[in-house]
């Protein structure tokens, strides 16, 4: 009796994962092509400027290190936001959480009477303080959504403005250096700063903390009962009830974790890059976090990849800004807007997929 031949799995672009990858790759190439067209309209040497934009971070250790530094806050913002999206929520409170948690971290980092002088304990103390504050603040829109059905997007946007006003007032009246006018806090104590781990770069230990958080969020989502409940609730809002966990409890837990990640990311960014709190505006990580989550398809590893890609272009544009009259960070915003529109669209390449599926079905008949 002869064994039946085993059919090899056929690779098809119409399957969910390959199709998702095709969407992302096509979106990236389209965005870059439009960026080149813009450069062609404003630059005398568009080809050179475009090549520089794509290669400049690779020309030195410092340049590439700058990319890694810039991806840290984007990754934290993306991780926090993907938890909201996975639960079916469109919450942009990461913006305000980052700001007010940074103020909380600053309150510890500038106060030698609280700090121990130890280079390990002091950063941990600042980061934990910021993370706890972030968790508490994030519970506000979570509670209003779970208890009263309030629109979380509207609540989070309003909350961001309120948190900015409160944080700015605290910095200016309590944490600023005496006798110095301006919007900056007093300098951080040296023991509170995160150490640089790659010589001749700005890469600090925060990148290790970021990597650990990516792994932990991955484990949470795909290897725990809570993570399964989060993922299934995003597909069916009533699943939490069937899993034995109330929707109220789930929303509160998700906001608690997301706020913790946002607060931690804020402290890591401040203590790793800055010498004092100098944010005169909101850091812009609410919508950026949403972009990272969308680009990464709400997957922790996808968020990491998206953060690296956007940071690469942003870092390149900022490094080239002093040498090129046409390249600056605003140019990269074109890429980000196009990517957001294309990847968030449910219809991008859908007609092509439907035609391919129909063709495949006819071939099998």
Structure characterization notes:
Helix 1 (16-42) runs antiparallel to helix 13 and helix 4 (94-109) runs antiparallel to helix 5 (121-148). Helices cover 70% and strands 0% of the residues. By secondary structure, the chain is mostly helical. The model has no long low-confidence stretch (mean pLDDT 87). It has a single domain (69-328), classed as ABC transporter involved in vitamin B12 uptake, BtuC, CATH 1.10.3470. It has helices at residues 16-42, 46-55, 61-86, 94-109, 121-148, 152-175, 206-223, 225-235, 239-242, 247-273, 285-295, 300-320, 329-344, 350-364.
Question: Which helices and strands appear, and what pairs or packs with what?
Answer:
Blueprint: H1 16-42, H2 46-55, H3 61-86, H4 94-109, H5 121-148, H6 152-175, H7 206-223, H8 225-235, H9 239-242, H10 247-273, H11 285-295, H12 300-320, H13 329-344, H14 350-364
Overall 3D shape: globular
What structural class is derived from the secondary structure elements? mainly alpha
Reading the helices and strands in chain order gives HHHHHHHHHHHHHH
Total of DSSP H or I helical runs spanning 4+ residues: 14
The assigned CATH architecture is Orthogonal Bundle
| CATH fold category name | ABC transporter involved in vitamin B12 uptake, BtuC
Distance between the termini: 29 Å
Low-confidence stretches: none
| Rg result | 23 Å
The percent range for strand residues is under 5%
* Mean residue pLDDT: 87
Biggest sheet overview: none
Helix content: 55-70%
- Count of separate structural domains: 1
Question: Would you kindly provide a brief summary of this structure?
Answer:
The protein is built from 14 helices and no strands. The chain is an all-alpha fold.
